[in-house]
Amino acid sequence: MSIEVANESGIGVDELALISVARFALDRMDIHPQAELSLLLVDVEAMTELHIQWMDEPGPTDVMSFPMDELDTARTPDPEAPGPALLGDVVLCPAVAAEQAEQAGHALDDELHLLTVHGVLHLLGYDHVEPDEEREMFRLQNELLDAWRELAPSARTVSEG
């Protein structure tokens, strides 16, 4: 699985952990092992522009997802099914995440792991507009994060993917 990270936020983050949690979530969701994902970390100004442009909402947000290919091509295929897909981009704003982490009483890394999984699930078609959708998405998000965190730190390395 190819996961690229571009950190344009000006804030140092553990990029390898973001790749690891994203890869773990995609593996657990049976996404083709050769699928491609991009993680982009941006500053408040860039996230504000994206949020206004794509969601028509003011101010920055913590995470946005921009799907690329059809989801059907990304699922683990039958021998006859199409190959891997370009899943899309997950855009994170570490400055907003830092504020949320402080309010929640946990570390920035924990918030970014959560937001990465959240963004990946959006790419896979999950949403939280309706209460039932929200319960399902957040349940799955928590299950994935808990399972990833239970792994020994050495098992969470990127080289295993």
From TrEMBL:
<dbReference type="GO" id="GO:0008270">
    <property type="term" value="F:zinc ion binding"/>
</dbReference>
<dbReference type="InterPro" id="IPR023091">
    <property type="entry name" value="MetalPrtase_cat_dom_sf_prd"/>
</dbReference>
<comment type="function">
    <text>Single strand-specific metallo-endoribonuclease involved in late-stage 70S ribosome quality control and in maturation of the 3' terminus of the 16S rRNA.</text>
</comment>
<keyword id="KW-0698">rRNA processing</keyword>
<dbReference type="GO" id="GO:0004521">
    <property type="term" value="F:RNA endonuclease activity"/>
</dbReference>
<feature type="binding site">
    <location>
        <position position="128"/>
    </location>
    <ligand>
        <name>Zn(2+)</name>
    </ligand>
</feature>
<comment type="similarity">
    <text>Belongs to the endoribonuclease YbeY family.</text>
</comment>
<keyword id="KW-0378">Hydrolase</keyword>
<dbReference type="InterPro" id="IPR002036">
    <property type="entry name" value="YbeY"/>
</dbReference>
<dbReference type="GO" id="GO:0005737">
    <property type="term" value="C:cytoplasm"/>
</dbReference>
<dbReference type="GO" id="GO:0004222">
    <property type="term" value="F:metalloendopeptidase activity"/>
</dbReference>
<feature type="binding site">
    <location>
        <position position="122"/>
    </location>
    <ligand>
        <name>Zn(2+)</name>
    </ligand>
</feature>
<feature type="binding site">
    <location>
        <position position="118"/>
    </location>
    <ligand>
        <name>Zn(2+)</name>
    </ligand>
</feature>
<keyword id="KW-0479">Metal-binding</keyword>
<keyword id="KW-0690">Ribosome biogenesis</keyword>
<dbReference type="Pfam" id="PF02130">
    <property type="entry name" value="YbeY"/>
</dbReference>
<protein>
    <recommendedName>
        <fullName>Endoribonuclease YbeY</fullName>
        <ecNumber>3.1.-.-</ecNumber>
    </recommendedName>
</protein>
<dbReference type="InterPro" id="IPR020549">
    <property type="entry name" value="YbeY_CS"/>
</dbReference>
<dbReference type="GO" id="GO:0006364">
    <property type="term" value="P:rRNA processing"/>
</dbReference>
<keyword id="KW-0540">Nuclease</keyword>
<keyword id="KW-0963">Cytoplasm</keyword>
<keyword id="KW-0255">Endonuclease</keyword>
<keyword id="KW-0862">Zinc</keyword>
